[in-house]
Amino acid sequence: MRGILNKNDCIKYLHETWSGEVRGPITTLEFLMQHDGYFEIPHLLLTYMEYLAGLFTGKGPNANPSDTKKFIQAYFPSKYQHAGSWLIVMYRHGLTHEYAPKCIEYEGQIIGWCCDLGTQNIREHLKIVPTQEPHFYQFWICAHEFLKDFKLAIQNFKNDILKDDKRFENFKKAFNNHQKPEEYNTVCKKTKILFLKKIKIG
Q1: Are residues 114 and 141 in contact, defined by beta-carbon separation less than 8 angstroms?
Q2: Which of 57, 134, 140, 157 could lock onto 124 through a cystine, CB 3.0 to 4.6 A?
Q3: Is the Cβ–Cβ distance between 29 and 45 less than 8 Å?
Q4: Are 81 and 65 a contacting pair, CB within 8 Å?
């Protein structure tokens, strides 16, 4: 896509890429939902939310978990207000760095995880639920509910861009910067990794 010039460009991008009407992130998640994608669903959702938080704040790829939490608080239903940190620490950090969600010790209790792909336990979504083991609880994510709320957040984000000039300017700045190629040495310094050092081009 060409760069963002106006609010209509923002809305068009969010609609075409994130509405689920064309092949893209939403259709990928819906496919995984139908084919028992397990950890992949919260992992991808939280990764997408981190990217959108960069557009929300204007920071682009420099957005951090605190920005993701702000995006959650701004556009997700109120039940996420208390759960944003848990989602990020347990699921985002755990799945990105340790393959599985983290277990957390909290006030003498152990909080494990539960990612449910069904629809019969939607009422448990984002709740810390006791188990049969003493001092052991589970923080539940119901994938269907999480995806539904993610779609709602995208719509809320679109509405905010239309009425808030600062939100639009943040989006435009981050999106347009993201379209530019990044200089090789800058990437190496940021990642502290030297790669493609002697690659032959052409």
Answers
A1: yes
A2: 140
A3: yes
A4: no
159-167 long-range contacts (CB < 8 A, ≥24 apart) are: 160/74, 160/75, 161/7, 161/10, 161/11, 161/14, 162/7, 162/11, 167/56
Q: Which residues contact 21 (CB under 8 A, 6 or more apart)?
A: 15
User: Are the C-beta atoms of residues 46 and 91 closer than 8 Å to each other?
Assistant: yes
Contacts of 64 (CB under 8 A, 6+ apart): none
- 65's enclosing H/E stretch is helix 65-75
Instruction: Using alpha carbons, list the distances in angstroms from residue 173 to 2, 8, 85, 153, 182.
Output: 13, 15, 27, 21, 15
134-163: pLDDT as tens digits:
999 999 999 889 989 999 999 999 999 999
Give the phi and the psi of residue 95 in degrees, each rounded to 5: -70, -35
Residue 112 C-alpha from the chain's centroid: 21
Q: What's the whole-model pTM score?
A: 0.85
Rounded to 10 degrees, the C-alpha dihedral 132/91/34/78 comes to 90
Buried b (16+ CB within 10 A) or exposed e, 6-19: ebebbbebbeebbb
Distance between CA atoms of 13 and 3, rounded to whole angstroms?
10
